[in-house]
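Researcher: Here's the sequence for the chain we discussed earlier.
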Amino acid sequence: MFTHVWKKYMPVIAILLKRSVNGPQTLDMNYTDFERAAGGKKVKFSFSSLKLENGRILNGTRHTPLAKDLVLALQESELTQKMIRKQQIEFSMVNGCQLVIQNNTPPHEPEQEQEQEEAQEPGEENSEEKGDSDPAAPAAE
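Model: Thanks. This is the structure I predict for it:
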């Protein structure tokens, strides 16, 4: 029912998904777009805590058709599908048609990279020491 409305906003949602790494992002949308999509039915144009992990709905609670259609639109778009594939994103929408996007993906831990670098450093020092002793050996002859 609302998929075509979400597709209309998908380019902006994609930009906000990229920016959500730095903090929550909001998008003010046109209320009449959603009213027209509802076809005169009285529908609640809000939802809260729609959590996606690796592109799929995480929590088992029932969501409104509005929220489900957002997920469908995100999964159908090649651009956003790649963005949400390895992330934890939370969406919520208030009655004023304001979409809030929050990226809850844990940051990549640099400690593992530092441990790998530290493990390589002693090996590099040993090769330098060997290099220093080799030129000294021919000079001693």
